Amino acid sequence: MGFRSLLAISNRRRPSALAWLAAVFLAGCAQAPTATSDAPAPASAAAPGPIYSLFHRALAEPEGKTAVLRLHGQGAQIFRCEAQAAGRRWVYRLPEAELSDGDGPVVVRHGANLSFEHVDGSRLIGEIVDHVPAPVDNALPWLLLNTRSYGKGTLAGITQVQRIDTVGGMPPADCASTPPGQILRVPFTADFVFYR
Question: Rounded to whole angstroms, how far apart are CA atoms 99 and 116?
Fold first, then answer.
């Protein structure tokens, strides 16, 4: 059998480029999140592979805004084991993190109600307006928050905050072997960009 015959047989057995791209696209779309709260998807649902990163949607920067501050946060996402229709699950409660500028001292504390409190007394309360899954496994989604500012200081006039470059923070898929009401602290790091 000649080379051209082998090539013809090989080409018949291979899917077309269009069919391959369609399969890759559909597989990438299967990873899209559906939740709109800060509660991350269960770890079992966040198993992106190489296709996922190919189709990862970047978190858009706020239009008409200027980034005025970028801080690195380190802390924990706090969950509580609660009974649900599908069994006991880890339910998101709040974040606890300290934000600093590189190796400098802590300047902002991040906590309940997606709040940020600067050491100078200025504060923000956030509300999630956009989110995308992280491009790495078992990491918190990236978020865009609209914020209301209180007090005078560094955070005065900040209207939006991004949480990006997340590492960790995801709970196990369920807490079936854990007593109801048990608290779980999952370590995480992230960068926070403040816009005015």
Answer: 9
Q: In the Cβ-directed half-sphere of 78, how many Cα atoms lie within 13 Å?
A: 14
Quick one: pLDDT band at residue 60, thresholds 50, 70, 90? confident
Percent of the chain with pLDDT over 90: 62
Residues paired with residue 180 on neighbouring β-strands, in sequence order: none
Asked if residue 154 lies in contact with residue 172, where contact means CB atoms within 8 angstroms, the answer is: no
Flag whether pLDDT at 83 surpasses 50.
yes
Q: How far apart, in whole angstroms, are the C-alpha atoms of residue 124 and residue 162?
A: 13
Domain ranges across the chain: 29-195
Parallel, antiparallel, or unpaired for β 67-84 and 87-100? antiparallel
In degrees, rounded to 5, the angle at the alpha carbon of residue 191 between the alpha carbons of residues 74 and 41 is: 80
Residue 191 bridge partners (DSSP): 72, 164
Cα(5)–Cα(18) distance, rounded to whole angstroms? 23
Taking the model in full, what pTM does it have?
A: 0.71
Based on its alpha-carbon atoms, the radius of gyration of the chain, rounded to whole angstroms, reads: 22
Element housing 25 (H / E): helix 17-29
